[in-house]
């Protein structure tokens, strides 16, 4: 893959601070300067803090973080990507924002989101080619990291809103096991699916971010490849992936073999196939319930696409919703059985590279199943298509096995780089 924009490496910044080679205020100043230079073209930020607090203490001291603008912040506007909430000033922080502040991070600004984290795009462009989408709904978070404005950012995923923009922008995007990160204080769209996620330049960087943010042992550790089985996941959606993406998945499997992993083919079990189809109905119904009050009050301020989604959700019957939830439950049982035989699955992060144009944020077909299953997933960057646009490979692991996922994915990222 040809060199893209120069990114800030979170792990390197942390090490520089801890060894006395960099001061937290200087580290934050790097991000402030980069935003001033670059965001006029990238449009990753909906709001930039005028005088952000910089802490000298804490595991994330000196790390400037972009926060997706569906998380409440008491000191910056929170507009949920919608004119309906223009100028909204919450009284308190979302739980994950408070967690970041307690760890010493600097909340440098609010990153652009699609409206209510659904499909109506914001102004953000792809840092690799401004004529292409950055993905969504965590558009600004992925683009802010990819363009080198911040070393880390927070986003969310309800379908594919962390993994897909990470793939399109060529960064690591980590969707943890459901509820590992708190979602209190975010604008919910589908509460049983909404998952907070993280972005950084590489898998190792996003793992360091996750560990220092949460206090959990999540930083990527050494891996004995001979003890790990990697499954290449074959599902009907692969027919919709483009040739470059299928080739990248092939090359990823070859690199895993070369690195000493056992690699096997895994066919999608029928319960998981059915669960994937249930995702949309669950999302729609919950969006109707969660956002119906917004429709009642702010219909004229919403995009037609969002209005229609909420109205459709309000029409879903309780019986249909319960039937879909039963399919999801059976799918989770099948997923547990699947991971009895493999440690990590590999599948495309998206059907291909970022599509040209800004009217669409891309297709979540390879992501929504794993969101519904609640399993941890991470985009591993490192491949590109003929036009030098990033392609990502998604790694997925058993629910709760986040550190295993991040450790294996970090080793795979190295293997991909060695194979190029």
TrEMBL record:
- GO terms assigned for molecular function: transferase activity
Task: Write one Pfam family the protein is assigned to.
Answer: Amidase
**What's the family?**
Belongs to the amidase family.
* SUPFAM superfamilies recorded: Amidase signature (AS) enzymes
The protein's matches in PANTHER family, at most eight in alphabetical order, are given as: GLUTAMYL-TRNA(GLN) AMIDOTRANSFERASE SUBUNIT A (PTHR11895:SF151), TRANSAMIDASE (PTHR11895)
According to its UniProt entry, this protein's organism is Hoeflea marina
Q: Which of UniProt's keywords are assigned here?
A: Transferase
What name goes with this protein? Asp-tRNA(Asn)/Glu-tRNA(Gln) amidotransferase A subunit family amidase
Query: Which InterPro entries does the UniProt entry name for this protein?
Result: Amidase, Amidase_dom, AS_sf
Q: Which residues form the Amidase domain?
A: 55-406
Asked if Transferase is a keyword of the record, the answer is yes
């Amino acid at each position: 893959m040809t060199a893209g924009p120069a990114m800030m490496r979170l792990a390197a910044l942390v090490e520089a601070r801890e060894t006395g080679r960099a001061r937290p205020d200087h580290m934050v100043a790097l991000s402030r300067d980069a935003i001033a230079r670059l965001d006029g073209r990238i449009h990753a930020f909906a709001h930039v803090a005028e005088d952000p607090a910089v802490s000298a203490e804490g595991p994330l001291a000196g790390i400037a973080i972009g926060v997706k603008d569906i998380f409440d912040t008491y000191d910056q506007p929170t507009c949920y990507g919608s004119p309906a909430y223009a100028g909204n000033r919450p009284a308190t922080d979302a739980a994950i924002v408070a967690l970041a502040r307690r760890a010493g991070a600097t909340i440098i600004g609010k990153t652009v989101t699609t409206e209510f984290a659904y499909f109506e795009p914001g102004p953000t462009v792809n840092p690799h080619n401004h004529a292409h989408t950055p993905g969504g709904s965590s558009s600004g978070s992925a683009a802010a990291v990819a363009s080198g404005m911040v070393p880390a950012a927070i986003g969310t995923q309800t379908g594919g809103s962390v993994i897909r923009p990470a793939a399109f922008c060529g960064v690591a995007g980590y969707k943890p096991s459901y509820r590992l990160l708190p979602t209190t204080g975010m604008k919910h769209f589908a509460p049983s699916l909404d998952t907070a996620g993280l972005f950084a330049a590489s898998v190792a960087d996003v793992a360091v971010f996750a560990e220092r943010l949460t206090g959990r042992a999540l930083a990527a550790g050494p891996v004995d490849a001979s003890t790990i089985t990697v499954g290449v996941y074959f599902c009907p959606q692969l027919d919709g992936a483009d040739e470059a993406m299928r080739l990248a998945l092939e090359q990823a499997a070859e690199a895993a073999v070369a690195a000493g992993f056992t690699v096997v083919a895994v066919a999608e079990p029928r319960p998981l196939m059915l669960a994937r189809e249930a995702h949309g109905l669950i999302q729609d119904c919950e969006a109707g319930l969660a956002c119906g009050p917004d429709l009642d009050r702010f219909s004229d301020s919403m995009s037609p696409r969002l209005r229609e989604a909420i109205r459709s959700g309000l029409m879903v019957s309780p019986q249909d919703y319960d039937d879909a939830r039963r399919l999801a439950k059976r799918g989770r049982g099948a997923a547990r059985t699947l991971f009895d035989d493999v440690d990590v699955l590999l599948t495309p992060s998206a059907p291909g590279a970022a599509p040209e144009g800004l009217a669409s944020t891309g297709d979540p077909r390879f992501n929504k199943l794993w969101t519904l299953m609640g399993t941890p997933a991470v985009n591993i960057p490192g491949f590109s298509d003929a036009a030098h646009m990033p392609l990502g490979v998604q790694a997925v692991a058993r629910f709760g096995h986040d550190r295993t996922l991040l450790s294996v994915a970090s080793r795979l990222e190295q293997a991909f780089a060695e194979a190029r």
